[in-house]
């Protein structure tokens, strides 16, 4: 018997060894997990460097894990292992009596104070311009705070404390949903078991409370015709991995009220229910088609009038709440500040709004920053003193970018070289690399990021430099080999990585610069589509977008020949314009709140500025003049004579002399420690590999160590161009390192041998 069991186990083991790999390669791959509602890892890009530094194997491991056969089964097994081993409540979701609950929201006094102040200011602004419109606040507790008894889980929910804290400090009228929900006989029925939203019953109860404050009567529960929308598995089900949790039944409550529904796109419907969404994974979008910036629900039966036109400033809980408000209000206008950023004054006037409801879940009220956009414009003809406000400065200076890390692909090279030559952005870490992209950063294959003479990941560089600002000028390399949607996902992956590893860093994202239509894979249409995505998502994803591409386009909307180095790169004439417009805050969208300055409401100028400048942006800057080169700033030494002597014998390209600070940041060489005196020159054209080191060491020992560093630099630079510019790679890999006594030279150039001969001649070496 024992032998039989062993044979069976051995057979199963051998079967698994062959079947699992076969299934992995045979089964089709998908980019999106329907059950987990997230994008899966893609195949990492292979290179020798990524293999040696481990990033390729790490990426491959993540790819295999995400596409492992029967992945959902193993994700579920892991989730249930956590459940039965008692570790479940260290996760995002807990399971109790067949229902999933989200982990509690932390009580954050600073965040609550800030958002409460924003609401109070909004109400004050309405009153100051003569709008006598009631503003009411409804904070919605989480399912765990309502349905769970104290002690049922290790979690402690702070929703009651959050609501009490905000309601005691706001000037708005308040609606206490939590007290009403706690008094219900079946509290669990108010929320879904697999999703964080309230059910139709919960939304109806909240609408009933609001209608009571309006003096209106809500239709009774019995008057609704309830139909089933089928099984519903929500966000908690997808995020927990507890696949055996029974699905909810989605209910549609129909009152018979005739309405017209429109959204920001002008699409019109005659129902609040988008039934086609019931065939999709996220069935909650059946209510008003999910999240939109602006939705209007208008009664089409003039005989059923309450005289109430309500503006709802809301989160996703109002997708279903809005359906019920339409039963008691003539007009319901729902605005989601995650997507709608315009002042609300014009909307209030045009829609004849006479009631305003602010509805947020406790979780969103603590975490949301979009209430910063809550404002009302003055109605025409009203003349009152405008309150001071916060806005971006009129222009920026170099000091704003002190300590910032400015990362980019090869297109950034022209600005980097310009700054080296002029001394602009002297205290900014400007790092350009030919094959840099969002994919490489997010998926840890950014072996080409060179810092301090080695290969670093961006998060590590930010920690090392202490940078509080990150400026990303990437995207062209991602677009060159992928469709726009894939490149967009790479970018979102990059944001997620930065937020998780460097949460205190403020992120700026620059537009991709224009190109000539090179081919189907690299054309301006893709660039424009990607830039539109970056701009549209700046506010919702929480970064600042810098729109500079328009300054370099011709009448056809592609790269202007005036600024064209080649089909995908800007020439030196574009660098000063790039710098000037980088300083112009008119090009910034969703400028970070922490860097706003106070403006006078009457003059619309920063406080302390007496009159407006004639021009904004670049006109406020000092004139752009070329500073003296870094070499001229240092005392003249024999190395300057060597360089000049080489230049008399060989025609050198235009080379830039790096400052000591840049040499340390870029190459990891420390003047005075690694060498006694040194000059490092790089080509002003970032698409060429030309580089020249002229080093004088303190002694023979340090010279020998410098030789090793120079040889490593040749290998490093060659690898940068290997898969990007093969012809430049051939030049870089043939770089020459010379060593004579205490002198060391590194020469990377198509004319490396001629330069080497000139170097020997200048030093008098036969």
Commentary on this structure:
The radius of gyration is 31 Å and the shape is elongated. The protein is of the alpha/beta class and 766 residues long. Helix 18 packs parallel to helix 19, helix 23 packs across helix 27 and helix 25 runs antiparallel to helix 26. It has 27 helices and 31 strands.
According to DSSP, the number of beta strands is 31
Task: Give the overall silhouette.
Answer: elongated
Straight-line N-to-C gap = 87 Å
State the strand order across the main sheet: 6-5-14-12-13-11-9-10
Low-confidence stretches: 15-20, 22-26, 612-636
The largest pleated sheet is described as: 8 strands, mixed
**Strand share of the residues?**
15-25%
| Content-based structural category | alpha/beta
Count of helix runs: 27
Give me the Rg, rounded. Answer: 31 Å
Helix coverage percent of residues? 25-40%
Mean pLDDT: 81
């Amino acid at each position: 018997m024992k032998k039989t069991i062993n044979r069976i186990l051995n057979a199963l083991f051998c079967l698994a060894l062959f079947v699992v790999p076969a299934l992995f390669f045979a089964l089709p791959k998908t980019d999106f997990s329907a059950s987990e509602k997230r994008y899966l890892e893609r195949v990492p890009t292979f290179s020798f460097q990524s293999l040696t530094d481990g990033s390729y194997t790490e990426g491959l491991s993540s790819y295999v894990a995400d596409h492992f056969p029967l992945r959902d089964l193993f994700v579920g097994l892991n989730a249930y292992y956590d459940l039965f081993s008692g570790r479940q409540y260290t996760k995002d979701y807990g399971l109790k009596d067949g229902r999933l609950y989200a982990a509690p929201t932390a009580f954050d006094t600073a965040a609550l104070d800030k958002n409460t102040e924003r609401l109070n200011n909004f109400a004050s602004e309405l009153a100051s311009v003569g709008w006598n419109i009631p503003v009411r606040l409804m904070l919605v507790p989480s399912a765990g705070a309502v349905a769970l008894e104290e002690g049922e889980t290790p979690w402690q929910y702070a929703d009651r404390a959050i609501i009490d804290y905000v309601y005691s400090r706001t000037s708005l009228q308040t609606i206490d949903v939590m007290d009403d929900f706690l008094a219900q006989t079946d509290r669990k029925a108010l929320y879904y078991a697999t999703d964080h939203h309230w059910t139709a019953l919960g939304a109806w109860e909240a609408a009933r409370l609001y209608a009571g404050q309006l003096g209106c009567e809500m239709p009774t529960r019995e008057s609704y015709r309830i139909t089933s929308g089928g099984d519903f598995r929500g966000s908690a089900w997808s995020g927990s991995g507890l696949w055996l949790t029974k699905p909810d039944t989605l209910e549609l409550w129909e009152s018979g009220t005739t309405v017209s529904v429109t959204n920001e796109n002008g699409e019109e419907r005659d129902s609040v229910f988008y039934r086609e969404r019931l065939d999709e994974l996220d069935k909650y979008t059946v209510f008003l088609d999910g999240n939109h910036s602006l939705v209007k629900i208008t009664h089409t039966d003039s005989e059923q009038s309450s005289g109430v036109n309500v503006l709802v400033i809301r989160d996703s809980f109002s997708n279903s709440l809005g359906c019920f408000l339409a039963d008691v209000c003539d007009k319901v206008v729902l605005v989601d500040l995650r997507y709608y950023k315009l002042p609300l004054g014009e909307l209030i006037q045009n829609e004849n709004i006479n009631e305003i409801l602010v509805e947020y879940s406790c979780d969103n009220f603590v975490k949301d920053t979009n209430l910063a956009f809550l404002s009302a414009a003055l109605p025409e003809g009203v003349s009152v003193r405008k309150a001071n406000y916060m806005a971006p400065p009129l222009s920026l200076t170099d000091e704003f970018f002190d300590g910032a890390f400015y990362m980019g692909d090869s297109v950034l090279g022209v600005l980097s070289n310009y700054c080296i030559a002029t001394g602009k952005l002297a205290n900014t870490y400007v790092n350009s690399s030919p094959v840099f992209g969002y994919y490489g950063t997010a998926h840890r294959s950014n072996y080409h990021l060179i810092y301090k003479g080695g290969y670093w990941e961006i998060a590590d560089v930010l920690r090392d430099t202490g940078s509080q600002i990150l400026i990303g000028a990437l995207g062209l390399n991602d677009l060159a080999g992928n469709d726009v949607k894939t490149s967009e996902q790479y970018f979102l992956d990059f944001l997620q990585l930065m937020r998780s590893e460097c949460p205190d860093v403020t992120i700026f994202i620059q537009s991709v610069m224009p190109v000539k239509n090179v081919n189907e894979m690299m054309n301006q249409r893709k660039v424009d589509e990607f830039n539109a995505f970056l701009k549209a998502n700046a506010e919702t994803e929480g970064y600042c977008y810098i729109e500079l591409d328009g300054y370099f386009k011709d009448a056809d909307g592609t790269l202007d020949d005036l600024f064209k180095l080649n089909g995908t790169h800007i020439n030196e004439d574009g660098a000063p314009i790039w710098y000037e417009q980088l300083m112009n805050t008119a090009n910034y969208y969703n400028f970070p709140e922490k860097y706003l300055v106070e403006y006078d409401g009457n003059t619309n100028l920063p406080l302390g500025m007496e009159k407006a400048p004639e021009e904004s942006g670049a006109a406020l800057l000092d004139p752009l003049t070329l500073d003296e080169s870094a070499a001229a700033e240092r005392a003249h030494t024999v190395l300057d004579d060597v360089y000049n002597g080489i230049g008399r014998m060989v025609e050198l390209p235009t080379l830039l002399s790096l400052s000591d600070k840049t040499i340390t940041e870029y190459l990891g060489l420390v003047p005075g420690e690694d060498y006694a005196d040194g000059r490092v020159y790089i080509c002003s054209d970032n698409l060429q590999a030309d580089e020249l080191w002229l080093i004088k060491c303190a002694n023979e020992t340090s010279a020998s160590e410098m030789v090793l560093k120079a040889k490593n630099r040749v290998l490093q630079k060659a690898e940068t161009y290997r898969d990007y510019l093969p012809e430049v790679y051939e030049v870089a890999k043939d770089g020459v390192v010379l060593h004579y006594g205490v002198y060391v030279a590194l020469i990377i150039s198509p004319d490396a041998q001629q330069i080497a001969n000139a170097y020997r001649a200048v030093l008098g070496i036969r």
